[in-house]
Amino acid sequence: MSSNTEKTEKLRIDKYLWSIRLFKTRSMAATACDSGKVKFNGDQVKASRQVHVGDEYEVKTEARRWKVKVAGLLHNRVAHSEAIKYYIDITPAEELERLQFQASSFHTGKRLSKIGRPTKKDRRELDGFMDEEE
Fold this sequence. Notes:
- By secondary structure, this protein is of the alpha+beta class.
- The protein has one domain: RNA-binding S4 domain (Structural Genomics Hypothetical 15.5 Kd Protein In mrcA-pckA Intergenic Region, Chain A), CATH 3.10.290.10.
- Helices cover 40% and strands 14% of the residues.
- The protein has 6 helices and 5 strands, in the order αααββββαβαα.
- The protein has a 5-stranded antiparallel sheet.
- α2 (13-19) crosses α3 (26-34).
- The longest helix has 14 residues, at 120-133.
């Protein structure tokens, strides 16, 4: 029985970040820890660091910077609606504002309709127009 309670008390940071859905895979979470993108009290942490309720972590993902407080230990990956119950997002307001500004100024690279290269129909009309002039 003691091995079961021991398992529920110990949780690695990489597994925790994966289970609360900050990272798509556990290996991505471990890589982020090893490359210094996960910090506890300003110090980078190893993927094997134990997580405790009440800890606050700064996490930098591809999408944004997070500041999360551990609200509960989650050992398995669950739906997003369930996962958000196991952490408290304490990201500073200025970071959230920066994200909103970045999203509003984001350009997808798609061309606007009716602008740019002519369509096949447009080319046929142009060819017909050019043939009539000669």
